[in-house]
Design a protein that fits this description.
303 residues, Rossmann fold, alpha/beta
Amino acid sequence: MFSHDIIKKRIIVIGANGMLGQRIIHFYSGKENIQLLGCSVEPSPCFNNVDYKSCDISKREAIKDIILDFYPDYIINAAAFTNVDLCETEREKAWKINVKGVEYLAEASRIIDAHLVTISTDYVFDGSKGPYDERAKPNPLGYYGRTKLASENVLKISGTYYTILRTNVLYGIANSHPDFVRWVFNSMKEGKHIRIVTDQINNPTYIDDLVQAIDKVLGFRKYGIYNIGGREFISRYDFSIRVADFFNLDKSLITPIITEELKQAAKRPLRSGLITIKAESEFGFKPTPINETLEIMKKELLQ
């Protein structure tokens, strides 16, 4: 998106060691006229040949010092406390990372007029009337969703240039804990029986589609809220069946259940998913069909 520019664009990726952060780093490290800095709470990076600093976004002065020293044009926040059930019991930690962290990033970005992009979720909705567009009224069921909605509201009043990208069921290849597809694949390859819910409906988001959307947002200077998700609305159970069919795995290992049977600490939005027409019309977002994404993932999963 920026290869035509003479002056280098300076980009900080917060949460660079996470699944999304790694894919963002991979994407931009191959681009011309980009000066890149990865930041994560871990002391060392999961990637090579890119500048890296350890940082904790819940520490106001530390993150401010890093941002003002690097002086980025763009800040991409891929850091979050995303364990939905732990958010119910570790509320202080969740608030510090998901809300205060975004507040501190916004404060620093406002000082230098940087464009801040952060990732939100369909968990800001209650899942009673999905799929949702950007104008739908949020009503989070659990504390994770509450923190993500609070972070959106922080940005709205921050006075900085911001973009919020809401997404759901992120999957793809990265050097991180397994996403849904890899967990299903690995479990079934090992002959394990897995229980998958039939009553949670989403449009799973391929991770590189989200990276492409971030790049388009920066390139076209789009601000506000945008939904990013896949083209196909599907239950978690049907998604796992698609994975099993694609890789010729034994579908009898998959037991259909409903969410209530899992007895999870946090309530989940059931009839959810995100309508992406706004992103498609305003900056040409094009989600990749599920079978094509599985074909892309196939080489690494079958190694």
